Amino acid sequence: MMLPSVDALAAQVPDGALVALPPDNSLPSVALAKALIRKGARGLRLLGVPVSGFATDILIGAGCVAEVETSAVSLGEAGFAPRFTAALKAGSIRLRDATCPAIHSMLQASEKGIPFMPLRGIIGSDILANRPDWKVIPNPFATEGEDPIVLLPAKQPDFAVFHAAMADSEGNVWLGRRRECATIAHASKAALVTVERVVEGNFLEDEKLASGAISATYVTATAIAERGARPAALLDEYGFDQAYVSDYARAAKTEEGFRAWLDREVYGAAQKVAAE
Amino acid sequence: MSIALEERLAATLARLIMDPSAPPARHIAVGAASPIPAAACWLVKLMGHPVRLSLLHKRSGNPFTEGTRELFDLTGQGRIDLFFLGGGQIDGQANLNLVGTGDWPGKAVRFPGSFGSAFMYFMTPRTILFREEHSPRVLVEKVDNISAPGVSPPGVFRRGTAQALVTGKCVFRFHPDRARFSLESLHPGETVETVREATGFDFDVPASVPTTPDPTEAELALLRGAVKAEMVETYPEFCTRVWGHDAAAA
Question: Coiled-coil stretches, from where to where (chain A) (predicted)?
């Protein structure tokens, strides 16, 4: 389903939804995050796959988020994520810490429709001590000793949200080698994808494009958002905008600075679009 | 041009990577915020050692075509030989805290989070710990929260532990059998006493502690030339800071 705007895409997401987002190196839809802020989303539960970045920080700052499950929240070279840090201190979000392969494994369990997935490591980490939903069992196939191993429950997000380079006439999307977005789409009940452009044809008919495509089977709705990953990079099309993120990191150190940034970069942009 | 601390640390890490007493490093993965370890790996490779480098955050030519889980799948199989980890706090048993200080999940000071440490630390045959800041707030007697434990009880599957901890002041060797660090070498200008003052945990000191060797002329030439050229796309700010403002144009 092709929707007319990123704001129409955001309208699909009810308050309280569990939304899976890739981090800044992996095609986040910052355009859709900004649209969720404009629509006044509340109570969202965000899943960082496997970590969280810019989009998560602005959603938290704008008061859209009740809970974050992730393996880290960071702005990369620009440092700690300021609104995440402030919200955690204020107690206004719940945080469930994980570790990267655990998040991938929980999504892979959903992909397969199985109730859990085992994972090595983690035993002795305080992450495990703070995750009553993760269990340790003796490896039932062990040939000697107990061989304790962690079991992780399947995680099925309500929405996968990410950005892709293009969609085709059939509703397939293409994002090259960033296959973690495919895992999120496969595992989620619905996938909302912003794209730079829509092209004629069918990616699945083209051997070179098919391996970087996500079939329309998994894609619920798309909308065009040019530069929709900005300030994150899009494959070989545009780079990471370090200056924009560094400017944000400085502004968002304070609540007032963040509000001014929102007015300029999120609400201001919407007014400009509406006036055009 | 004098030797920058970053150059000294990269050369020191490169020597640890090639340590003949450690398990072989045929395939090394380097994470996001790790420009100095990345420089060390490029140095090893460009000196002609046959090593496969998988840089997680390389935008062009990224080695992973099945998604970011591929790093962890490879590591789970034992196909990544060496990884680098740091921590907001590192303690005398090589426990790592990337979560934060105070009560869980970092009620006092929150760090970004544990990333893949709770898995990678277990599943690679060796880990080099790297943290440039060497102070009592980073190197603590006991971490407030454990992202990844330094050693594991018998019976818990684990391929390896820390090999060493490299800081801005010294190199510590880790001994998993007794879960303790020993002082391996001191960077120029440091003494056992200055290191002791800056370290919150107790460690072993051999009768004589050598000085960490300077990078060789050949290493410096590589770092400032071919290594920089490989690094500039992924770590532009680092290259500009260490090697001058023309780095991004190189």
Answer: none
